[in-house]
Every structure is written in structure tokens, then in C-alpha cells.
């Protein structure tokens, strides 16, 4: 019988964490797909901003693509686009959507954002929307993103900064919802902390914006560049 003090190898631990994330998102995938976007005006503003940063010559990677709504809107403006999500059920829904459209440059694959997809520095842009607070290790995820980007490539993200909410939400409500299986594990930080982490990994911050149409927007939109 194994002692409870024996720790799993790092790779095994990472696989277990990814599997747990996949189970959570698989379970809610159909409900997630059916829910309307909460701030459509803010979402459209972000799409327009991102589309202006992409080019038909770009190879693009989207991490945490969910059911593919954003990738399906942006792919036509790229040379090729790979959109990934940790949840196979989310990817299945995204592929069903793709089957109804003519976007040969777009592909969906199941993959965990905490580890590199290729690590080959082959993408002109990496996109991550409503994701960076959901990764298991922010520093590890950023190292993976750096490894995907060509020198001079763009990391474009929009991230809920939970530390900017009422403190009772990240400290009390979110842990309670996690305990009953209604919320995933999340990281709590504010925009200043997030930007500092980006810079620690060598990114040059080019733009910091808020696109929400409501009075308070905790989702910070960031355009960051990997140095040449």
C-alpha cells in the first residue's frame, strides 16, 4: 500500500489537474453553449479591436476557445488558426459549428492551456479570452505562451480580474461555489498584478483597455508583444 506522503511525478500531477478541469467544463458544456453573452456590446468591441490586430498572413493560436464562437468570428482574417480548449465536449460543440461554415483555415483541438501546444515559436499571435484566471499556474501558462509566439508576436488577452470585485466574491462566494461543484478553480488578481506578471515574462505591454459597456468592467484587455 502506498504511503499518503508519496507525491506524484510532476507530469502525472499536471495530467490529473487537466483531467479535473476537463471534467468540470465537459459537465457544463451544453449549458455554457446555450447561455447568451452577458455584454454583447463589449464583446463586439473586443472582436473589432482584435480583428484589426490580425492579418491574413498570420498564424494564430487561441487558447481556451470554449465552444468556438470567437474563433469562428476571427478565423477568416487569418492565414491559419488553431483554437484549443481543455474540454473535449466544448471542442465537439465547436466542431459542429465549424461544420456549418466554410472556414478551411480554422481547426479545433482539445489541449490544456497550461502546457505548450507545440513550443515551436510558430504563431504570429496567441489569443486568450476569459482564460488567464482559470489556468492552474499563471507563470507556467505564460511560459507556454512565450514558447508558441514568434519573436515580435502578439499575445492578446481579455481577463476577469477577480481582485477588483467585492472582496466577498473571490474570498467567500467563489470558494463556496467550488466546494459544491458549481465553479472551477480560479486565480484572483487585479490588473496591476496581471500586467506585472506579463512583464516578468518579457512581454512589452502595448495597450491596456476596458471594453465593457456597463458601469464597471473587471475584464482587462491587454495587447502585449514578445520582443524581437
Question: What does the model show?
Answer:
The protein is α/β, with parallel strands linked by helices and 228 residues long. The protein has one domain (10-159, 189-225): Rossmann fold (3-Layer(aba) Sandwich). The protein is 39% helix and 21% strand. The chain is built from 7 helices and 7 strands; from the N terminus they run ααβαβαββαβααββ. The chain has helices at residues 10-34, 40-53, 69-74, 88-99, 138-148, 168-179, 191-200; strands spanning 59-63, 80-85, 106-110, 123-129, 149-160, 204-209, 219-225. The longest helix has 25 residues, at 10-34. The protein is globular and about 45 Å long. The N and C termini lie far apart (53 Å).
Helical content band: 25-40%
The total of helices stands at: 7
Element-by-element helix/strand order:
HHEHEHEEHEHHEE
> What structural class do helix, strand and pairing data support?
alpha/beta
Distance between the termini: 53 Å
Keywords:
39% helix; disordered N terminus; Rossmann fold; seven-stranded mixed beta sheet; 228 residues; alpha/beta
Amino acid at each position: 500500500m502506498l504511503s499518503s506522503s508519496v507525491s506524484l511525478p510532476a507530469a502525472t500531477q499536471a495530467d490529473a489537474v487537466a483531467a479535473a478541469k476537463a471534467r468540470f467544463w465537459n459537465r457544463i458544456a451544453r449549458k455554457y453553449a446555450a447561455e447568451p453573452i452577458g455584454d454583447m456590446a463589449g464583446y463586439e468591441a473586443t472582436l473589432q479591436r482584435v480583428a484589426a490586430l490580425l492579418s491574413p498572413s498570420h498564424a494564430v493560436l487561441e487558447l481556451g476557445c470554449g465552444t468556438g464562437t470567437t474563433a469562428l468570428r476571427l478565423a477568416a482574417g487569418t492565414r491559419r488558426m488553431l483554437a484549443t480548449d481543455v474540454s473535449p465536449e466544448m471542442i465537439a460543440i465547436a466542431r459542429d459549428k465549424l461544420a456549418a461554415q466554410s472556414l478551411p483555415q480554422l481547426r479545433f483541438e482539445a489541449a490544456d492551456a497550461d502546457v505548450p501546444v507545440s513550443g515551436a515559436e510558430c504563431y504570429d499571435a496567441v489569443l486568450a479570452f476569459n482564460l488567464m484566471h482559470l489556468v492552474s499556474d499563471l507563470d507556467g501558462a505564460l511560459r507556454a505562451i512565450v514558447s508558441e509566439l514568434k519573436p515580435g508576436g502578439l499575445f492578446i488577452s481579455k481577463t476577469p480580474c477577480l481582485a477588483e470585485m467585492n472582496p466577498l466574491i473571490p474570498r467567500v462566494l467563489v470558494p463556496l461555489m467550488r466546494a459544491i461543484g458549481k465553479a472551477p478553480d480560479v486565480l484572483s488578481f487585479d490588473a496591476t498584478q496581471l500586467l506585472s506578471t506579463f512583464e516578468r515574462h518579457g512581454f512589452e505591454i502595448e495597450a491596456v483597455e476596458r471594453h465593457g459597456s456597463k458601469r464597471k468592467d473587471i475584464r482587462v484587455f491587454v495587447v502585449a508583444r514578445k520582443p524581437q
